[in-house]
Design goal:
Elements lengths: L14 E7 L4 H16 L11 E7 L4 H14 L3 E5 L1 H7 L10 E6 L16 E5 L4 H6 L2 H4 L5 E6 L4 H16 L3 E6 L6 H10 L4 E4 L3 H4 L3 H10 L2 E3 L2 H5 L10 H5 L1
Parallel strand pairs: 1-2, 1-3, 3-4, 4-5, 6-7, 6-8, 8-9
Length: about 260
Amino acid sequence: LREEETAKCYSITGKKVGVCYWTSVDEYDRAITIIEDTFKENGYHIRTADSNMEIIYKNCQASEELVGEAVKSFQQAKVDLIFAVGSPVSAIIKRFLRGLDVPVVCLGVYNPIVLGFLDLDEHDNLYAACYAVDIKEQFKNTIGCISPEIKKLGLMYKAGELQSEIQHDEIRKLTSKLNIKLVAHDVQSEEEFPKVLDLLQDEEVEWLILEADTMVANASRASIETFAHRIPTMCLLENTINRGGLIGYVASWDDVCR
């Protein structure tokens, strides 16, 4: 210090963070917990007497309109950072970022294709943490090891959900290359599971792929176990394995979110 200066004590100043997610899913709840824990580990206090951070949460209830309203509310609140949790909301939120000079972190995105084309001059503050392992590697390290002579593969996907359709395309291309017949069913809700399971068994599929989509992510443990008990399942999401799926070659959701 020079003679005319005195030591100063610096502390973390108050910050505001916006977090939006598509709907209530266990993975999104887990991501939110990790966001809060990480901030706390780095000196921030949330919902305490000495709080130096406010986190504003927006459940978009599977509505594109509510994603836009969430971004608008974050802008009005003058947040310092925005988290978009999960593929569905991340695919949509970029439409509402024009003129918004706030960093946006898309967390738990299936892969960069979900975000589509980005003009980096307009979205230079957008970042993404993706969890998809290349589908060829997933297949090679699971079904390819156990049933290398497989001829017929089942798949459930959710039409209209971008990350599900991307996975469907990847799997369709892979099975075509490997000369495996793909039997794919569009399933929109858990209530359809028993009917689809009967169809898959009638079609004599040897394995079933359970995608990383909101339909599977929201399914009960009992439903996942029912599939796994009747047809061997390859899972594209870590928590599907934890809830009774047979096998998967996947990234750790917690590591991706951290």
